[in-house]
Amino acid sequence: MRYHPLTADDRVRMLGRIGAAGIDALFRDVPASAVVPLSAFDLPDTKGELEVERVMARMAARNMSAGSVPFFCGAGAYRHHVPSAVDHLIQRSEFLTSYTPYQPEIAQGTLQYLFEFQTQVALLTGMEVANASLYDGSTATAEGVLMAQRVTRRPKAILSGGLHPHYAETVETVAGLSGKVVRAQTMPGQAEDLASMIDGETACVVVQSPDVFGQIRDLKPIAEAAHAKGALLIVVVTEAMSFGLLESPGAQGADIVAAEGQAIGNGLNFGGPYVGLFATREKFLRQMPGRLCGETKDADGKRGFVLTLSTREQHIRRDKATSNICTNSGLCCLAFTIHLSLLGEEGLTRLARLNHARASALADRLAKVKGVSLMTDSFFNEFTIRLSKPASSVVDALAEKGIIAGVPASRLMPHEKVRDLLIVCATETNTDEDLEALAKGLSEVLS
User: Fold this and answer.
1) Superfamily of domain 345-446
2) In angstroms, rounded to a whole number, what is the distance separating the alpha carbons of residues 175 and 426?
3) Which of 112, 162, 291, 303 is the most exposed place for a label (fewest CB within 10 A)?
4) Which long-range CB contacts under 8 A does 344-353 form with residues at least 24 apart?
């Protein structure tokens, strides 16, 4: 689509038509304290295309990209190798130009890959049914809480202290008005007694595994405690690669699984767009948010696909809608589907084992560094360490050395107890040289 800028005469005629004295009149409802004058920005009036490209290139060069340095950040967004075949296939015109598959006769390709995506998610999570994706893991979690409140007709949601704080805040924002949200508090290595918090008003217990500190949780006792009181267990997974190695949430008693699928097929992308995975038990099917694609047969008896359920107010009576989420993350879940199809079950397991091996090797190496102690005793590819200095200052110092050391816990939960905690992640993209660089850098900074 071409961009045709307005001329000064165009603007005058438009403003006159709507009765505005000038451009500023369009923003009169914005408080003056929130307005930044154009003069505050040091921007040239005009530049040629080549000049702009050079300026933008210089600005981009100031960034330290994940692929250019030893990189150990996780905490909800993970760097994995995405095969070039994924990017090549998702750019095919039939995928890039397809929109909402309202008319199945002209959207069979879109419907089929969504059907395959749902099948993959159901198998990964150990659940009976999955939808065609939500926006991301955090909104999927919030939708899970809303769904649990509808199913149980109860208001209270208990959030584990190991739930990613951004996910917890999203739940409070989206589901807080429809009920009561209670957040437990925990630290790495500490056991939280969620069972004692469950009562007759509890709709669900939300537990992340591996949790925000990287700790793998035993979900079965929590599931039993929740079910004994008539509540549901919602399991959250932020690292989809862990499905290839850990026991599925469904096998451990989960009623709803909300996950972030970014790790499979999707790059870090400066934080988005990502793809929310959502799966549940078949008996809760009609309370599930989002879209559901199904398989059918056409008039000639040939296999075909349709939009079986779409329980939002655009499609059904508003009082029957389960969600106001407008769409699914189509292109991102296509990338997920292609990458997982290329890997296959055996390939995913091998890749997951490689992730765990990389993280284990890093943990063993860092444990030998003076001033470092390991806080997570059971992990997949992410763990938490305690440093002898504030983690944020250590990360800044290592960034000066060209090493992105991880995520200071204080960025996620800003209180004094976590100021010396660093969440570190290693994936298949980290080499032996990367691991040694981090260990050496920490040794120098902490000495």
Assistant:
1) Aspartate Aminotransferase, domain 1 (3.90.1150.10)
2) 33
3) 303
4) 348/241, 348/243, 348/244, 349/244, 349/245, 351/241, 351/244, 351/428, 352/241, 352/242, 352/243, 352/244, 352/245, 352/380, 353/244, 353/245
Report d(CA 124, CA 334) in Å as an integer. Answer: 16
Q: Do the Cβ atoms of 258 and 274 come closer than 8 Å?
A: no
pLDDT at 314 over 90: no
Question: Could you give the dihedral angle defined by the CA atoms of residues 60, 63, 67 and 68, in that order, rounded to the nearest 10 degrees?
Answer: 100
- Between 364 and 189, where is the model more confident? 364
> Cα separations (Å) of 82 from 64, 78, 136, 332, 342?
19, 11, 19, 12, 11
| Per-residue confidence band for 315, with pLDDT thresholds at 50, 70 and 90 | low
This model's pTM is above 0.85:
yes
Rounded-to-integer distance, Cα 77 and Cα 393, Å: 22
Q: Are 204 and 144 in contact (CB under 8 A)?
A: yes
Read off the tokens for 71.
Answer: 């990189």
Compute CA distances 150 → 114, 138, 141, 254, 445, whole Å.
26, 19, 14, 17, 52
What is the maximum alpha-carbon separation in the chain? 75
Q: What is the pLDDT of residues 181-219, one digit of tens each?
A: 999 988 887 879 999 999 999 999 999 999 999 999 999
Match domain 84-340 to its CATH number in 3.40.50.12780, 3.30.200.20, 3.40.640.10, 3.40.50.1000: 3.40.640.10
